[in-house]
Amino acid sequence: MEKSPATEVSDLPASKRQRPNHPDTAAKYKGPSVDDFAPTSMTRAEFDLLSRNQQKKVMRQEMWDERSAEFKEKQRIKRAESRRRQKRRIAAGEAPAKRKPEEQTRSGYQFVIDMDFDDKMADKEIKSVCSQIVRCYSANRQGPQYSDLHVTKLHTRCRQRFDTAITDHPSWMPTRISLHDTEYMDLFAKEKLVYFTADSPNVVEKLDPEKVYIIGGIVDKNRYPRLTLDKAEQQGIAHAQLPIGQYIQMSSRKVITVNQMFEILVKFIESGNWKSAFMEVIPQRKFKDDKPEVSDSESAQEDSKDE
Question: How many Å is the Cα radius of gyration of the chain?
Fold first, then answer.
């Protein structure tokens, strides 16, 4: 019987290849170890009392603090280069110029992003939702009209994220966004409030400038169903959802990100057309079978808008 030829290492998939044992090569794969780490925020004895995972968190945080200044400088350079590229694209006619603030008019609509869910998010979700707030601010500056946008209960980790990573927020235009530590109930009359939630049985057909519409500021991967609906009911305020199901069919629950929600509202204020607002903002991958389905009620509601 013939023996099968030996398999060369190079023929194996990458996942099954062993790392080289040469010390120079192996050293490249070795990362920092908590066993050799010298903490600066506590004594070594205190550090040794922590669990392994806690030790790794402390080590990563201290290493990040050491490198944060260098990282921020690199980010500043990247942003400056990005602005130069955008200016070149605008000059070449490849991108539209940004709308100047004085060219915008006030829409008269009022929106709130409720950030009272800090304790229900992981650190990476805190980072994500704060980035979405930045996109909301950007969207409110770019259209022909801007709305009154308030961010409420911005506290604890979300506030820390703004103060440490979104350091330019003190220079944001107060007419385009307002950051508050307080609850929306302290800012607006209860009867004016409407909480947007995908779990509400009520559907908004048009926007009312006399109302204040609330968007839940949370990234939770559907871990907390009915969270915002339960909050609205406990506070005794109105609630509703967007008419997404009347215009398109989504492949999952009608849950979208904070910035997508706000951008849809911005687009609807511009056009008065829910379908075009949904199509322009919601990613195509979220459509069922990659094809939006329009209901028979579209023609009756296509041009609904309350100026």
Answer: 25
Q: What is the Cα–Cα distance from 306 to 60, expressed in whole angstroms? A: 51
Q: What is the pLDDT of residue 254?
A: 61
* Those residues with Cβ within 8 angstroms of residue 291's Cβ, 6 or more apart along the chain or in another chain: none
190, 216, 197: which is closest to 132 by C-alpha?
Answer: 216
Q: Which residues have a catalytic role annotated?
A: 220
* Angstrom distance (rounded) from CA 291 to CA 33: 50
115 within 8 A of 155, measured Cβ to Cβ: yes
Taking the C-alpha atoms of residue 228 and residue 99, their distance in angstroms, rounded to an integer, is: 34
Q: Is the pLDDT of residue 257 over 90?
A: yes
Which among 53, 52, 35 is positioned nearest to 44, based on CA atoms? 35
The 3-state DSSP composition of the chain as helix, strand, coil percent (nearest 5) reads 50, 10, 40
Q: What is the DSSP string of 45-82?
A: HHHHTS-HHHHHHHHHHHHHHHHHHHHHHHHHHHHHHH
